[in-house]
């Protein structure tokens, strides 16, 4: 099961990344969990200084941007 985490405080890009990541996972028919992490101290624990960020199975995949849907799919598999 894929563990997807979106790090961000709730800005428009953070919301968009969450929605796009969820859509990509559904289109790939993945078994997954998705979680928003909005607390600054928890985001800092990942060493992320810019949001939004995408973390897949504990690995930071994207920082500071929202990739296109097709690119997100590649990051999730």
How would the blueprint of this fold be written?
Layout: E1 2-7, H1 12-27, E2 32-37, H2 40-45, E3 53-56, E4 59-63, H3 69-76
Parallel strand pairs: 1-2
Antiparallel strand pairs: 1-3, 3-4
- Structural Rg: 11 Å
* Multimerization state: single chain
| Ends distance | 11 Å
Mean pLDDT: 97
The proportion of residues in beta strands is 25-35%
CATH superfamily descriptor: Glutaredoxin
Total number of beta strands:
4
Question: Main sheet, how many strands, which sense, barrel?
Answer: 4 strands, mixed
Weakly predicted, low-confidence segments: none
**What is the CATH architecture assignment?**
3-Layer(aba) Sandwich
CATH class: Alpha Beta
- Strand and helix order: EHEHEEH
- Under CATH, the topology can be stated as Glutaredoxin
Into which percent range does the helicity of residues fall?
25-40%
- Describe the global form: globular
Number of helices: 3
Order of strands side by side in the largest beta sheet? Answer: 2-1-3-4
Domains counted in the coordinates: how many? 1
